[in-house]
């Protein structure tokens, strides 16, 4: 895939801008949108981000070749152990992590006093009226969604004109990812039969590769995995299984701060184990589910092509967040390492340069502003994210210089991170102060965030927080983190931060 510098020498910004105008200014040619969101997928699982990955996804590769891959996409964070919930709120509303609705007990007397909810004014009561489907409905679009049920934003989901939601994590046509694909194909067939010429926005969500990762028999065999269910034994070793991630550990060096978390200790087939046989089998299961998703995407893309709609359809591929699965001795999504904080993000369609990569430095909350911009719809004032148009047009490499991440679904105040350039800081303040840790990484030298426990030879491939040579950098990054927490209305402060 060509670099941005090479392509900028070939593509004129003015031509890109004019092609945007052509795609959005003619009412009869308003673009369609296919928004693909998978459940729990690290970008490092995909060849477009990790060439060493054995996962085969030819249709996602096809989207990448025909469009743009963004290397710096992130989900911002979560105030819930079910990281999907705030992530999907941000996707649906284009708002930041502390400016979206949180679940509150109906009886205020039963509220958890350790949880500092943001002011209600930061999440307007009428926000569903300015969520994805509502915005596109008002603009004359037909809107349809299929996705899992639960851990989402129901008031925004029901704004879609056609809703076919169900949680499908089995290994058959009716119980797995094929079911979601069939809902989209059925909807497209109905449109064709009715000669429906309205532009459409389809939210094509999947329930996999979230556990339980029951793959189809054929794909499980391809990746050497079984749907392991016996808690008292290890799954069989198989040479076809994906290799261990390079940053695998048998255990994280300190507690992540969320006791008895299901994603860490109660996932069927894994439970508390992080040994090689368990993790490689689980990766095989995940890859089987991910390739099945890719197959369903291919069916929908082919159908759009048959209908003559694909050329006028923007296609987005992303995930609600990443996943650990053995990396750093973790299993779930409740961490701020790159494998989990980052998400895959691919965009193709009319006027999108082909075969290009950009850093982007985007959040998932930038998805909706981008869709609105590409559709030529006036953006409502509720949107806090930014459109990717300047990056797409080659006017800039990133949307922002600094990225902020949060996880406080467990004990409070939780984890925070900040990234600027090559540098990233993560801080942990959990378990009533019994775990207070700081990590500092140079991602250019240490992209996999190796820890001392990985025993790497390079002095740069480790946590640099306690290295006196980087004391000034740590101080600088900690000041930057505090500024980000203040800017994004984070209601918490860490142990070594001033209260304000």
Structure description:
This is Sulfatase-like hydrolase/transferase. Belongs to the sulfatase family. Residues 229-259 are annotated as: Disordered. Residues 31-377 form the Sulfatase N-terminal domain. The chain is built from 14 helices and 15 strands. The protein has 500 residues and is α/β, with parallel strands linked by helices. It has two domains: 4-102 and 118-400, Alkaline Phosphatase, subunit A, CATH 3.40.720.10; 411-487, no CATH class. The chain is globular, with a radius of gyration of 22 Å.
Compact overview of the structure:
With 500 residues, the chain is of the alpha/beta class. The chain has helices at residues 4-8, 13-25, 58-66, 84-93, 132-138, 154-157, 177-193, 217-222, 262-265, 276-306, 338-341, 367-375, 389-392, 471-487, and strands at residues 32-39, 67-70, 73-74, 77-78, 142-146, 162-163, 200-209, 313-319, 345-348, 356-358, 362-363, 402-407, 414-420, 423-430, 435-442.
Q: Could you give the topology of this structure?
A:
Layout: H1 4-8, H2 13-25, E1 32-39, H3 58-66, E2 67-70, E3 73-74, E4 77-78, H4 84-93, H5 132-138, E5 142-146, H6 154-157, E6 162-163, H7 177-193, E7 200-209, H8 217-222, H9 262-265, H10 276-306, E8 313-319, H11 338-341, E9 345-348, E10 356-358, E11 362-363, H12 367-375, H13 389-392, E12 402-407, E13 414-420, E14 423-430, E15 435-442, H14 471-487
Parallel strand pairs: 1-7, 1-8, 2-10, 3-11, 4-12, 5-6, 5-7
Antiparallel strand pairs: 2-9, 8-9, 12-13, 13-14, 14-15
């Amino acid at each position: 895939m060509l670099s941005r510098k090479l392509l900028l020498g070939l593509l004129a910004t003015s031509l890109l801008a004019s092609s945007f105008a052509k795609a959005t200014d003619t009412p009869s040619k308003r673009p369609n949108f296919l928004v693909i969101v998978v459940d729990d997928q690290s970008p490092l699982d995909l060849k477009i981000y990790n060439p060493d990955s054995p996962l085969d996804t030819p249709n996602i590769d096809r989207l990448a070749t025909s469009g743009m891959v963004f290397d710096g996409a992130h989900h911002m964070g979560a105030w819930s152990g079910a990281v999907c919930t705030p992530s999907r709120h941000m996707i649906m509303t284009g708002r930041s992590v502390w400016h979206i609705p949180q679940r509150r007990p109906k009886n205020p007397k039963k509220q958890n006093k350790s949880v500092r909810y943001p002011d209600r004014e930061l999440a307007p009561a009428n926000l569903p009226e300015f969520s994805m489907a509502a915005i596109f409905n008002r603009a004359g679009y037909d809107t349809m969604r299929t996705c899992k049920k639960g851990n989402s934003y129901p008031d925004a989901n029901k704004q879609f004109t056609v809703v076919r939601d169900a949680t499908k994590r089995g290994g058959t046509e009716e119980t797995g990812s094929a079911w979601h694909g069939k809902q989209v194909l059925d909807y497209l067939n109905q449109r064709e039969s009715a000669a429906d010429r309205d532009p459409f926005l389809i939210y094509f969500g999947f329930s996999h590769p979230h556990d339980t990762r029951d793959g189809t028999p054929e794909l499980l065999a391809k990746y050497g995995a079984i749907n392991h269910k016996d808690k008292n034994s290890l799954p069989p070793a198989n040479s076809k299984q994906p290799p261990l991630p390079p940053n695998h550990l048998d255990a994280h060096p300190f507690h992540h701060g969320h006791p008895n978390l299901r994603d860490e200790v109660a996932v069927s087939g894994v439970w508390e184990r992080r040994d090689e046989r368990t993790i490689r089998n689980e990766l095989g299961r995940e890859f089987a589910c991910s390739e099945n998703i890719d197959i369903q995407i291919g069916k929908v893309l082919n159908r759009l092509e048959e209908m003559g709609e694909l050329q006028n359809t923007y296609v987005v591929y992303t995930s609600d967040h990443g996943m650990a699965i053995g990396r750093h001795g973790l299993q779930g999504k409740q961490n701020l390492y790159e494998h989990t904080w980052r998400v895959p993000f691919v965009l193709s369609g009319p006027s999108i340069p082909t075969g290009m990569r950009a850093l982007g430095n985007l959040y998932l909350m930038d998805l909706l502003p981008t869709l609105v911009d590409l559709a030529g719809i006036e953006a409502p004032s509720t949107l806090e994210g930014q459109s990717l148009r300047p990056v797409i047009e080659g006017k800039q490499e990133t949307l922002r210089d600094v990225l902020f991440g949060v996880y406080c679904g467990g004990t409070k105040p939780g984890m925070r991170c900040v990234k600027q350039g090559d540098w990233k800081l993560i801080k942990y303040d959990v378990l009533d102060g019994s775990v207070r840790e700081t990590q500092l990484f140079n991602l250019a030298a240490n992209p996999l965030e190796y820890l001392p426990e990985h025993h790497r030879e390079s002095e740069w491939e480790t946590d640099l927080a306690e290295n006196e040579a980087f004391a000034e950098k740590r101080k600088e990054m900690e000041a930057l983190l505090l500024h980000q927490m203040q800017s994004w209305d984070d209601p918490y402060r860490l142990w070594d931060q001033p209260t304000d």
